[in-house]
């Protein structure tokens, strides 16, 4: 399935249409993998009379699927389904990394941005993991730039410094929220401990009252027995 998008040609009402097309593309991809058929021909082979090997077709086919997941993440975000948007963004980043087909600077920023969703969900383990991945790739970018591996102007020092600052800002937000939630958990734990102690004291007090009442009843019974005998 090939999905073509052109920015600016779709209004808000077309998000549902885009969602259906993208989900259909996912179904076609899953069905194709299940069929175990050879990779389909690419767009260029059909319309531009180019030839590609089976391996090349497979790479292009999987890249299309990765793009489909990326667009689905955007659509879910517009629809307000942040959980699905984050899930599709996570899979997209993972597939890009595994295929070694990504822009390191953009990938790092997207990964760091994803961590902020996990922070809002108190999923600090996933947030830390995505931030660690972002920092690792960002470090490689900076090291490569210093060694002049990248000649592209998109990797000039100013952009790298800004991107690194954005990632580190996400780390700061992560740490601040983690500390806040940790303090909150401690306060709630302390409160529960106090409630437990109060409940224990209340139960002890009630037990003592019951014991005193029973002793008073026994004394009254003894007095009544004495009166009866005296008669």
What is this structure's SSE topology?
Layout lengths: L14 H21 L7 H5 L6 H26 L2 H18 L4 H17 L3 H23 L10 H74 L1
Explain the overall architecture.
- The chain contains seven helices and no strands.
- The protein is an all-alpha fold.
- Helix 5 (104-120) runs parallel beside helix 7 (157-230).
Which key features would you list for this structure?
231 residues, mainly alpha, elongated
> Sheet with the most strands?
none
Structural class: mainly alpha
Helix amount: over 70%
Mean pLDDT: 81
Number of strands: 0
Distance between the termini: 107 Å
Q: SSE order, as H and E?
A: HHHHHHH
| Uncertain residue segments | 1-10
What is the tally of helical segments? 7
Rg is 33 Å
State the shape: elongated
Which band does the percent of strand residues land in?
A: under 5%
């Amino acid at each position: 399935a090939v999905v073509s998008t052109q920015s600016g040609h779709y209004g808000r009402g077309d998000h549902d249409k885009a969602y259906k097309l993208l989900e259909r593309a996912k179904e076609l991809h899953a069905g194709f993998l299940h069929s175990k058929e050879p990779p389909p021909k690419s767009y260029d082979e059909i319309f531009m009379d180019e030839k590609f090997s089976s391996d090349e077709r497979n790479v292009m086919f999987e890249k299309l699927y990765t793009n489909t997941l990326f667009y689905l993440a955007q659509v879910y975000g517009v629809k307000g389904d942040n959980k699905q948007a984050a899930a599709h963004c996570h899979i997209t980043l993972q597939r890009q990394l595994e295929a070694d087909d990504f822009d390191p600077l953009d990938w790092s920023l997207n990964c760091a941005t994803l961590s902020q969703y996990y922070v809002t969900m108190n999923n600090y383990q996933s947030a830390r993991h995505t931030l660690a991945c972002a920092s690792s790739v960002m470090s490689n970018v900076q090291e490569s730039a210093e060694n002049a591996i990248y000649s592209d102007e998109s990797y000039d020092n100013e952009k790298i410094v800004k991107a690194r600052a954005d990632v580190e800002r996400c780390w700061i937000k992560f740490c601040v929220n983690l500390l806040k939630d940790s303090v909150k958990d401690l306060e709630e734990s302390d409160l529960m401990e106090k409630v437990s102690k109060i409940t224990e004291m209340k139960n002890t007090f009630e037990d003592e009252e019951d014991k005193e009442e029973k002793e008073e009843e026994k004394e009254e019974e003894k007095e009544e027995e004495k009166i009866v005998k005296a008669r």
